[in-house]
């Protein structure tokens, strides 16, 4: 996966960091509401911002296609930097990755009580990175989205067996992050 800026002007009114993933016949373009804006710095705001009220979409582009060949699918807004794998199944392109409904990349914006000890504060699952699947149907243009793990697990940095890159896979391995901020170890996640 790489951060790509080629073609951004054609797709977007502003500059966005766009993670993309190449597998087999298609490029997968993750267009999420994480934006970079120099004018925000002049106003005392962060250069990077997660615009939660904005849109999100996933693009499927033929391997050697151009901007006009991208098929866009509207999805629930999210933030992600690490995809597990992408593959085709019948008429669908299946994208598996770690989805976060919000982003704390720019620093936490959580509202905590000053009187409360950090260890006693309620955890906000909005910032948990969980295994997610997007099924993009190239014929019907429908999207099916779902979490593949429960709400109590925060994971990142996925790895799969290299023999299954671009193919349907049964297992993925990831770093499990303790919700209290320490690294708890790794785990294997069965997809089925």
Automatic annotation (TrEMBL):
Subcellular location: Plastid, Chloroplast
Protein family membership: Belongs to the carotenoid oxygenase family.
GO molecular function terms attached to this record: carotenoid dioxygenase activity; metal ion binding
Protein's organism: Oryza punctata (Red rice)
Pfam families hit by this protein: RPE65
Record key words, sorted: Dioxygenase, Iron, Metal-binding, Oxidoreductase, Plastid, Transit peptide
Any one Gene Ontology BP term: carotene catabolic process
UniProt cross-references to InterPro entries, sorted A to Z: Carotenoid_Oase
This protein's GO CC annotations: chloroplast stroma
Residues binding Fe cation: 82
Cofactor: Fe(2+)
Protein name per Swiss-Prot or TrEMBL: Uncharacterized protein
Record's cofactor remark: Binds 1 Fe(2+) ion per subunit.
